[in-house]
Amino acid sequence: MIRPTLRTATGLAAGLILIAGAAPVLAQTPPPPESAAEAARLQALGETYHRAPDTAQDPDEVATTAALNARIAAHNEAAARQEAVDTAEYAEAEARYRAEAAAAATLQANYDAEQRTAAAARAEYERARATWEAMIRACEAGGRRDCRANAPD
After folding, report:
1. DSSP state letters, 92-107
2. Do 42 and 48 form a contact (C-beta atoms < 8 A)?
3. Residues 81-90: pLDDT tens digits?
4. The dihedral of CA 131, 137, 139, 141: what is its sign?
5. pTM for the full predicted model
6. Are 42 and 34 in contact (CB under 8 A)?
7. Through-space distance between the first and last CA atoms of the chain, rounded to whole angstroms
């Protein structure tokens, strides 16, 4: 009788862990290629694909399959047409958006330019006004009475 020891139990557990870890890898490896004899045996059992001759096909099944294929093809064509329409509509909407964005950018640039022009004009006016006020003060300080005759507008 074999008595289990800690050493054999540890070895057994390690072996089971190794096998469990290898199972997914083994499941993913393709089966080895079949020999000609094995292929012939499977074909005899009807396990391989082969197209039956037209005389052996069920006409109702062929008609059902053809109708199904026609419905699928029609559905695919309709989907392709709808996709083309959707793509064209998207392209048009994107073009409109880009045109509107460009127009908005132009309006913003014009507004900014007008603001800069107005600020420059306001600054020029304030400089002219300050110069005029300084002249008036100097004129009045000199004792003249007609100092405000040339006021800026």
Report:
1. HHHHHHHHHHHHHHHH
2. yes
3. 999 999 999 9
4. negative
5. 0.45
6. yes
7. 123
